[in-house]
Amino acid sequence: MERSGQDSWRRGWKWIVFMMVLCLILPKTTGQIKYSVTEEIKEGTAVGNIAKDLGIDSNVLKLRGFRIVSSVNDPLFKVNENDGVLYINRNIDREQICQRSGACVINLKTVLENPLEIHYVAIEVLDVNDHSPSFPESSKRLEISESTLSGTKFQLQAALDPDSGLNSVQQYKLSQNNHFRLEVKDRSKDGKVPILLLQRPLDREAVSNHRLLLTALDGGKPPKSGTMEIMIDVLDVNDNAPVFTKDAYSTEINENVPPGTTIIRVNATDMDDGLNGDVSYYFGNVNSKVRELFDVNAATGEIIVKGKLDYEVDDSYEIDIQASDSGSVPLRTDKSITVKIKDVNDNSPIIEVTSLSNKISEDSRLGTTVALISITDLDSGINGNVISFVAGDVPFTLMPSVQENMHAIVTKSHLDRENQSIYDVTITAKDRGEPALTTEKTVRVVVSDVNDNSPQFFQGQYNFYVCENNEPGVSLFSVNAQDGDEGDNAVISYQIARDSSTDIKATTFLNINQDNGDILALKSFDFETLKTFQFQVVASDSGSPSLNSNVTVNVFILDQNDNAPVILYPVSSNGSAEGVEEIPRNVNAGHLVTKVRAYDADIGYNGWLLFSLQQVSDHSLFGLDRYTGQIRTLRSFTETDEAEHKLVILVKDNGNVSLSATATVMVKLVEPKEAFAASDLQSSAKDDEDSHVTFYLIITLGSVSVLFIISIIVLIAMQCSKSPDYTSKYLPETNYDGTLCHSIQYRSGDKRYMLVGPRMSIGSTIVPGSHANTLVLPDRRRNNEEPKMPSADWRYSASLRAGGVMQSSVHMEESSVMQGAQGVLVQNWPTASSAADAEGGEVSPPMGAGVDSNSWHFRYGPGGPGAPPQHLKPGEVPPEAFIIPGSPAIISIRQNQGGEDDKSDFITFGKKEEAKKKKKKKKEKKDKKDKGKDDGDE
């Protein structure tokens, strides 16, 4: 006993010691702290001060390692180890953490190290209404039979809301309708469940489907909602029998209608759906005769003729038709149809040919019998009364015979086998029934031939084109004729007529095939010798007597490229195509060196010649116009260029196989004085060669020159007969050569102007761009001054004004060159600048023009002092040159704005009122004439 007591005492002390040690080893624990926060609160929001609530000094928190024990890397809450404040680390979603549980509490464990202390914190997450109710399906389809009884219920799926409490689904609403209402049942687990209740029976025939909208609302403020569309399809039941669209059906048909003809169609409708509304048609209580004659289409209700109807057998039928639906218990409706048969003219006339002639001659007399026919009709009465005739425009008619129903086909006009050899005569027989029946019978009549047509050529005249150099004995062309007859009457033979009136006997070099009209040449033609000829061909048939006709044949020989070009220029004394041209070394680019002339005996493309440089010593010096053969310089010559150049020109035609010839031109560069002398010699030689070409041109130019000189002399005489009357502003000028009849000077700005007559003073210049017959005299007093605008106080005669409609007739760019007649040295003279206000005087001749010269040419273009003028050959006058034969004076022809030459605006010599009046009248007359033309154009 003692021993057991001692053991018990020892065991008690051991337990006490163990508990004391355990208390020293285990950390201290305290009670639980609880906080409340709402979900979706902002991150970083403070929840509470754990250190303060636990009574822990905030200064030792960091030293003791105050922290929250969490198993995730991104916890919902964090504690500040400096002050012990608990704050939200990330967004809190109550529905995600606690799902649909009633209370949502989060338990946190906080730890203090050294010594170890553990504290528990409970955080309750309060719900907010952040979710709307939603149905599992956005739409729900129900099928309800129209026979469903009132009060039947249909359970619907409940709406779900992740929120809890009042924020979850609290009620349902159903859209307004006449057949359904909504009931809501509370279930502890599923919450509120909607139930659809049928309160009125459905009728598919009235409304086949219904659309309802179910709305779920939560208890939030404001409440949130979700909707679901309910589509109800009303299922059909067979509660309607077929109904015919007409109360009575009747029809009329003709007898002998073909089998398969639809005579009537009945129609019945059933308001049910599907098989309950699918209507089929059948015979009702009918006899076997009706079933033999008629049939009914079960799907469409068409009554179809099955046998042959005959009015003489039965004129009406009663047909019973039954309409039935396809429901499980079919519903049927009967209807009777009356069919009446109408009598018709169902027998056509019958035509039979009794006798027919095989052929009838085209020269048969009128009334000749061709065939006999009989016409009958099996019908009686008016349906058997027949009218017969020959149809169409044929030379035959139908004549009644003595015997009943017999007729004869006879000729009613002359026959022409060539016009038509076979006639299909159609006899038409028509009865008088309603509707009338017609029968046609065709009889073929053949017309035999007689020789009454002569051969006829296909063309009234033949035109054939034959290339020259043809091969003899080969067929060239063919003529063809036809004969309207047949047999031997149409066999044609051809021959060439022997006409002695023509100069060319075609039979000597042509032959014709008498069977087919092919014509061949016995020799080869030459276009250059014979270009065209004509002959006649005679065509004869083989009839008895024979008939014939003829036709004219025109033959045109076509040119071939069988002639090579012939060089006309240059040609040397020995007849070879070689020539030498000498030109000054100082000519400009574009200078005409020479022109190669060639001739081709062929015509068209075969005679169209093209020129090309075959060989040239320097391609940069000379250019050749491929169409005209003109050789021109491409640039100015330099001192390094060779003095002699060889040009080989190839001249070829444009034939398919072109032929060619070559010409050689040696171009020698000489000094300008030598060139002028050579040019005069060449011009003189060429004038001798071409005197017969230019003879008439010289006569014409001479006549015009004589008339013009007479006009100038008369004009000078009239000017000299009057004394000038000028204002005091005109300055006298004593520096002239004494040859002027009148000379008036005046000053405008820094220029001096002088009106001149047929002679000019020395040292004056032509003003480029001027408008009147006025010379600009050099002003030696103001050479170094800038030009000034002309003052407005000077005046001169109206005929000398440059304004109005007059425009400048001579435009000079850099220099003006005046060239005399042949053999006279060309003179360059400086260019004066035009007036600043565009009111310069008119153009006058240059000073220094010799009185012995016969004509003067103007040339305009770039140049300068010392630049060579354009070299013109005798007879070649540039289009811009003004030639005044027989006078040293040069006429300025001005243009109005219309671009036409005003012949009245010639040089005005002095101030002459009569001349001004004549000019004014002439101007007015021209304006009226132009106005009349304009009115006519409009």
UniProtKB/TrEMBL annotation:
One Gene Ontology cellular component annotation held by this UniProt entry: plasma membrane
| Span list, region Disordered | 895-938
Q: Name one Pfam family in it.
A: Cadherin_C_2
Q: What is the annotated signal peptide range for this record?
A: 1-31
* Annotated TM spans: 693-718
All copies of the Cadherin domain together span 29-135, 136-244, 245-351, 352-457, 458-567, 582-681
Asked whether the UniProt record includes Signal among its keywords, one would answer yes
Basic and acidic residues: which segments have biased composition?
900-916, 927-938
What this chain does, per the entry, is described as: Potential calcium-dependent cell-adhesion protein. May be involved in the establishment and maintenance of specific neuronal connections in the brain.
- Feature: compositional bias, Basic residues: 917-926
PANTHER family, sorted: CADHERIN-87A, PROTOCADHERIN 2 ALPHA A 15-RELATED
Task: State the UniProt keywords alphabetically.
Answer: Calcium, Cell adhesion, Cell membrane, Glycoprotein, Membrane, Repeat, Signal, Transmembrane, Transmembrane helix
An example GO biological process term is: anatomical structure morphogenesis
Where, subcellularly, is it found? Cell membrane
Q: Which CDD domains does the UniProt entry name for this protein?
A: Cadherin_repeat
Q: Which GO terms describe its molecular function?
A: calcium ion binding
Indicate how the chain sits in the lipid bilayer: Single-pass type I membrane protein
Protein name (record): Protocadherin 2 alpha b 9
The principal localisation class reads: membrane
